[in-house]
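Protocol step 4 of 5: obtain the predicted structure for the target chain.
Materials: sequence only (see below). No template structures provided, no constraints applied. The aim of this step is simply to have a reference model before the mutagenesis design in step 5. Sequence pasted as it appears in the construct record:
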Amino acid sequence: LLKTKSPGEISIREIARAAGVSQAAPFRHFASKEELLAAIMKEGFELQAKYMRESSEKYKDDPLERFYQCGLCYLRMGLKHPQHFKLMFQSEIIPDEKYPELQMAASSTFVVLRNMIIDLQATGLFGTGDPYLRSMNCWSVVHGFTSLYAEGRLAWLGVTQENAEAAMRVLLSQYLNGTKASIDP
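Step 4 output (structure tokens):
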């Protein structure tokens, strides 16, 4: 359903019909459509964290490649699981105290990124400054590229399926070079 509709356009009735269950069945597990969508969002954040942790572990001895691969796995997740990605970032549901499990799953992805930024700062590959703010900045860059690419907004600039990962690496390289300067609020 998320392939063709926004989260707000989907009804519990449609969800139940697509799943082949009665209209009441979803309410045995979820109090509302929002709770059901939050559970799907949680699954998406868990996938994202899994990809990021696997990448971090695989390249733990090469901080620079770890940085690149973390960004690339974000792109790959967004492309492999577009409905999760869309729901995670285009839904009105926010990972907050109303949905503690969703908040925990979303936080876990950010922690992986923040820890990587701290490690990069320790090696001198990343400039000084609050790792929390640096992580938000890095996430914004990677997410922006991923979202624009996934929505077909970069094709006119020559970013294709064949070169999207190379374009992300160049973007991350430029970003990394720009982080050498110290930032403090």
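Step 4 remarks: The chain has a mean pLDDT of 91. The radius of gyration is 18 Å.
Proceed to step 5.
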